[in-house]
Amino acid sequence: MKTKVKNKRKVVNKLNDLTAKEWIPETVSVFVQKGLGRGHKDAQIEREHPAPFSFQDVGRLISFFTKRGSIVLDPFCGVASTLKACAVLGRNGYGIELVTKYLELSRKRLNNEVPEELLKQTTQKLILGDSRKVISRFHDDFFDFIVTSPPYWNILHKIDHKAKQERVNNGLDIKYSNNKRDIGNIQSYEDFLNELSGFFNNCSRILKPEKYMCIIVSDFRNKADYYMFHGDLANKISTDLFTLKGITILFQKFKRIFPYGYPYSYVPNIHHQYILIFQRNK
Asked: Would you tell me which CATH number, out of the four given (3.40.47.10, 1.10.3080.10, 3.40.50.620, 3.40.50.150), belongs to the domain 38-280?
């Protein structure tokens, strides 16, 4: 008597192009930051921005949360780390940037650091303007993924050991801008938090249902106070619109250490960021 062999159902990966083996390490809740190194020729434009993040780190998120040909938005584009990663990985990127200088550096970076054949295979669109207004131009359910690192309030206005040694002494910017529309220039932390969370809630309209949004932030100190920015922001984003699916720690292994507080009190060297991972509800 012959026994019937059940046909195995083929597993269809609807989220990304990774194999099961490639998928597993991307779900570990701690990433170690990657970078080209400050002396690398392709790291010089990135250093012009006061708070850049590595295109390799954002590339990990893009690889996991999208497929080739997907459309990705970075609403606080900076110097186009996200768009560079999109071009390298075969995704189409949109970046919104308020500051003309950084938008021009973004164009220069894409042209200088991404091979021409890769740029021709995808669309990388840079938009100058206030992201709070620009997102109204996009159709509903337009993007497959949103990923960004927004301003951390006005914390860059404070000049500490790090700012003096790494930026002031090298003639580099220490804050985003003096623009009144810059969210990073809002004086009140509560006002800043409400404005930023309101913006991300509005992003639900342009993100496809059940797609993901990753927000890369850090906690910070302001004088004697410690702000749990990642928790405050996560709690402000509407649970009617998004579900918080998890938090990944991004360990900034290569940051320099400074003698904060010595020899009087404990002051931490903050060497990690939080990646808040949200999924848009149906």
From this structure: 3.40.50.150
